[in-house]
Amino acid sequence: MADNSRFDHDLVLAHKFPETTFTYTERDAAVYALGVGACGRNAIDSDELKYVYHENGQQFVQVLPTFAAIFSLGSLTNGSMDLPGLQYDPRLLLHGQQYIQIYKPFPSSASLINKVSLAGLHDKGKAAILELETKSYEKQSGELLCMNRSTIYLRGAGGFSNSSHPYSYSNYPVNQAAAPKIPKSQPFAVFEDCTQPSQALLYRLSGDYNPLHSDPMIAEVAGFSRPILHGLCSLGFAVRAVIKCICRGDANIIKTISGRFLLHVYPGETLITEMWLEGLRVIYQAKVKERNRAVLSGFVDLRHMTPSL
Ligand SMILES: CCCCCCCCCCCCC/C=C/C(=O)SCCNC(=O)CCNC(=O)[C@H](O)C(C)(C)COP(=O)(O)OP(=O)(O)OC[C@H]1O[C@@H](n2cnc3c(N)ncnc32)[C@H](O)[C@@H]1OP(=O)(O)O
């Protein structure tokens, strides 16, 4: 548990995050797409090649909707993992959940302004949960492109509540965080995809250089037998499965993405994504085939259904 004398929830809540700028190019979008497995099984798959290559030039490559999560990464830490009032061991940090709202398709390159705020802070006893919200605006037009809410699970940092009620603060509607109930029925679609042993080494080039994903010694301190995959990389695999099987390749119909990381994934493991349709909501669950364990679950909300479904 955290040293209560150094964990001050009022101080954490009062923190004002500085505005940051994030610029990406077509190359960043393509490296990201490869990092989440696009074209990993088939280099000429027309549903996926468009995220990596375009015959008329790189400025025409499309951008995967989960790339949104990359916009906020640098702005959350802004070069430092410290937050006044927050006491935790960064080696025990895990990504708990990601919630993304997309307002318009992303250009192949852009300069963005990120505005970060604290959306939640919870004492779970054995852990503290921190929720950070980032709104990303296109610098040139001032238009809001997307919103990310990242839930960070800080193992060993709980137990900071001053009263008998565990401390819990959040500033957004409950239904946005709720984990979906996985239906008992047969899934509408199932998609199997192998991550590569080098997957995390490739994915980290998109901006998450946490050594938990590359350094065997750090992974061991964190309680894993070897480096684990970034949660957002697994999310990228699962949402690619939804784009392929439900959106019929048209990622622009995705409005909202939500995912909860249930268990770590080791690079090289096979992900099986099961999908169920409930109106315009796709409920999904990803399992690791080798261990037959659910590792990720969530939902994807669509703007409209694909005509062929
Ligand atoms: C300037 C700011 C600095 C500080 C902030 C830094 C920001 C850093 C930004 C960068 C973030 C990205 C870093 C990326 C890291 C990774 O990618 S790590 C890899 C991906 N993640 C994982 O592999 C985690 C997989 N999940 C698990 O291992 C487990 O689910 C868990 C998270 C360890 C929790 O398991 P357990 O301890 O057994 O929890 P429970 O006992 O079941 O539940 C306790 C309560 O916690 C709630 N909860 C459980 N899991 C989650 C979750 N994934 N997300 C959110 N909340 C969770 C659960 O509901 C319980 O609450 P109550 O129901 O209220 O009791």
TrEMBL record:
GO MF term (any one)? (3S)-3-hydroxyacyl-CoA dehydrogenase (NAD+) activity
Q: Which residue numbers delimit the MaoC-like domain? A: 192-293
Q: Which domain of life is it from?
A: Eukaryota
InterPro entries the UniProt entry points to: HotDog_dom_sf, MaoC-like_dom, MFE-2_N
One BP annotation, GO: fatty acid beta-oxidation
State any GO CC term: peroxisome
Quote the protein name from its UniProt record: MaoC-like domain-containing protein
This chain's source organism reads Populus deltoides
